[in-house]
Specification:
Chain lengths: 68, 252
């Protein structure tokens, strides 16, 4: 199973990772606000993650680490 | 097993870029290439003026801040000071490379200076608030062209790769983009080749990256990536414009 680690406080909530995910694993946390004042990304369904790292490839701020 | 993590050559600091700006992706690609080629200790980057002016804070290699547009000239000096040891790259936007720094760019290419140039083309002046750039598309609405760029009054955009491909000097010219996973992977290959060319002593290598500016284009980050596909790529076609070693002079 793949494991995702986010450096949440660096997230700017642009959502490019959410769109890049082929399994709809990610979402922007509507009920959370990080230090920068954005709604950060979170894994809604980490069990569905296949570890393709498409999200991390598209993340402009390099906040996602993917393990498989 | 870790399949993706932050490259070591990218500093562990927050980037100041707007949400969804693809500068961050290109920074990471350059850092990954520096890691993979194992050249961190001998790489010197030249930062431009523009949105990426603070790139010197974001790479773990030595960096120099050049005067506006003069990065290829500074890179020339650094490279010639120790051509065997120094690996020199410049990281420039379109306002820097294609406007005020046009002369330095063209002459560095004409001299076939053995440096690597990463050129970010987002068709607008980002840092100063979205004015028309030399690369703004015909009809593009910006702060200084509120009715769209009128080519009768403002002339036509500069196509840097096409223009430099006519010179005998440069070794390698390619235009890529970073608006999808596939394109990011292609962009990384191009950037790696541009650095490898320098290691092999082949000469001037420039990679033009079509980049997005969601803030000044007035779009969401997602829409901005689509806009690259719909508007920018038809005007600035992707591809290798010159690869002398491979025998490609101009591919259209």
């Amino acid at each position: 199973m793949a494991k995702l680690t986010f450096r949440t406080d660096l997230c700017k909530g642009c959502g490019l990772c959410v769109d890049a995910c082929p399994r709809q694993v990610l979402r922007l946390a509507a009920d959370k606000i990080n230090k920068k004042g954005h709604h950060p990304v979170e894994a809604a369904d980490e069990a569905a993650c296949i570890g393709c790292a498409f999200c991390a490839t598209m993340c402009p701020d390099c906040i996602i680490q993917v393990e498989r | 097993m870790i399949v993706f993590q932050k490259p070591k050559s990218l500093a562990d600091v927050p980037l100041h870029y707007c949400p969804g700006c693809t500068h961050g992706i290109v920074h990471r690609l350059v850092a990954e290439v520096i890691d993979e080629l194992g050249i961190e200790g001998r790489t010197i980057g030249i930062a431009p003026v523009g949105c990426s002016v603070m790139a010197y804070d974001y790479f773990n290699c030595d960096m120099i801040e050049a005067a506006h547009g003069r990065a290829p000239a500074v890179a020339t000096g650094v490279k010639r000071a120790d051509p065997e040891h120094h690996i020199v790259f410049t990281y420039q936007g379109d306002g820097d490379l294609a406007s005020i720094g046009m002369a330095e760019t063209v002459h560095a290419a004409a001299r076939n200076e053995n440096i690597t140039v990463i050129f970010i083309n987002n068709a607008i002046y980002g840092m100063t608030g979205g004015q028309m750039a030399p690369t703004s598309l015909p009809g593009q609405v910006t702060q200084t062209s509120p009715y769209g760029r009128d080519v009768k009054q403002c002339g036509y955009p500069v196509k840097v790769c096409e223009m430099l491909a006519e010179l005998e000097g440069p070794e390698y010219l390619e235009r890529v983009t970073v608006n999808s996973v596939k394109n990011v992977k292609n962009a990384k290959k191009a950037i790696k080749k541009a650095f490898q060319n320098q290691l092999d002593g082949k000469g001037f290598s420039l990679v033009e990256v079509l980049s997005s500016c969601p803030t000044n284009w007035g779009m969401t980050p997602q829409k901005a990536l689509q806009w690259i596909d719909e508007k920018m790529i038809p005007y600035y076609p992707l591809g290798v414009y010159k690869d002398r070693s491979a025998g490609t002079e101009v591919s259209k």
